[in-house]
Specification:
Strand content: 5-15%
Radius of gyration: 27 Å
Strand order of the largest sheet: 1-6-5-2-4-3
Distance between the termini: 59 Å
Number of strands: 6
Length: 617
Amino acid sequence: MPNFFTSLAHAGASTIHALIKGPSKTPKEMYESQETRFQTFQGLMSSLSYHSQQLEARKQYWCAQTFFLAQLIKANEQKIAGIIGASVNVEDEAGLLETINKLIITLDNERNVQRFIEVLTEDCHKIETTQIKQVAPPIPESASGIQYYNGDVIELIQNLSVQGTLVVVDNAPNSHRDGAAKYSAGSVEELFSRYTDSALKMALHFDDVHQRNYQIGYYAFTEKPEAIDVLDYQKRYLKMVLTICSNLIHRTEDYLESEDFLNDLFTSFPNQKDESFKLPIYFDMQNNVYEVPVDGGFTSAHWFVNTKQLNTVEGIFQLLKIPDVSKPINVVSYAAPDLRKLETSPLDARATSNKRLQRPAEEGNLGCMLAAGIALQCQQAIQLAQHYKAQGINQPIAVIFVMPGCGAFNNPERSTAAHFISTIKYFYPQLAEHNISCHVAEFNPKLYNLLVQSNDLYGSELGQLNELINQLVEPLLRQKVIAVREKIVALYEHGESAEHLTKQLRLTIELLMSQPGEKRNRIVTEYEQNALSLQKSSDSLWNALAVAMIALGSLITTVGVVLCATGLALLPGTGVAACGTALLGVGIGLFAQNKHNALIRKTTDLLEEIDNTHLLP
């Protein structure tokens, strides 16, 4: 217990230090922060007393991963035999143990690492071409459209699978690094990992993270990053996973409760190529070769098995005897920003080279990241539908959306739900066009009710604006549009009428999509008519009138400036600008003291950015 309190005090001090220092300014600071995170995390996790539920989750995860490893070897006997230079056997403990141990040794050869990665990649292709057999009649849906499910998402996946439906689900990760599944219970991401071949397949998503951040413009430092030997990371990671699987078989599931297990997980296979920081692979891979992209995430093809009762080595071999037990599933990984001030968040912010992950609370991250992830999930489902159709295969597909960010990250619930549901609604017609069923799953009754309420309140407008923002290429304009949207979302969060704010969203969307000339002139007319109608409305719409008047005045002013700048009717342009300025003054005078002034200012700034160029690429 004294070790626990000492580790806890050290963790607290490290977190506060990281919070005060803020994001790393150089790669050296970043690597030092990664080492601090390792020391903090490893000390705390090794001194914790784990509850029985956490230990059972740990056993389920590693027994499941060992089962999937045996299944992979069995399905690729000749290829694995070619890698290890010997015959393979997965029928009993001794045979599987010998095969795994030989594989661990042969992975010291880089060519063998590449060959094993190729086996994993080919297994993904096999998953993507496997049709699910229907073993139960489909359950008639109570209604068309988006279906809401309050319960265990694993049960929903199982129900759809037995009906012959391929599921594309997001795992709602609460982090852009690897989660807690390997040692604890965790959240939804960890839940899915206990039912899929997640451990081995993670190596397929290893990439030179710093080069990727540099190429897409998210690199936080001035100097160009040095190249990373990704294959070496894959080798060390795979050897770590295989070593734990080997020890599990050799020492039974009791090994997973031992200190040896924690050492094998947290301190094994350090980086031998870095002279300064010899981090073990579990921590070295985080934010260096494994980091969930902030602009959409990634997709993974997995085998899915009901491993709820799998927690012993004996159970692994019993499950291997069941034919066709594994079902294909597609998992999309994208994450919400980590808006916590304490816990591991400051340490993570200093340990990454990604600008947006360094400043997760930056205005607009939540909506943009959710929209990009949902877009990727829908795109993956549509591509699968098109693929099966092209092959002449009638394969039903379902998308299951799980809202990220409101669990461990404690993101604002109302605004997160608004972004989430509205963006799903925006993409839903494309799913329906390809006969893809759509489900929203939530286990927490409170959040489930919030999602259902959000479905009743919000249309697709916020989702459409999110998608437009993600397509904007001009940084300053993007920033201004985000500022407008965030003020609207803040009003959602405070209970403002969705109907009134939706109108502002529609006007902003139309503004962004308009072309110079007659199109924008029509918008001006609509703004004028909107102002006139709002003048006749009840007191609750005065603030909306203020927004409309300011928007109208600013837009007319801007159009006037554009006309002057292009030489098209110089005097009329000047006259329009003067009229707009007058309306601007009236709006400020009438509503100088009400709570919508921030929204008014942001709207004004946005409209001042509109020029005679296309806003979208």
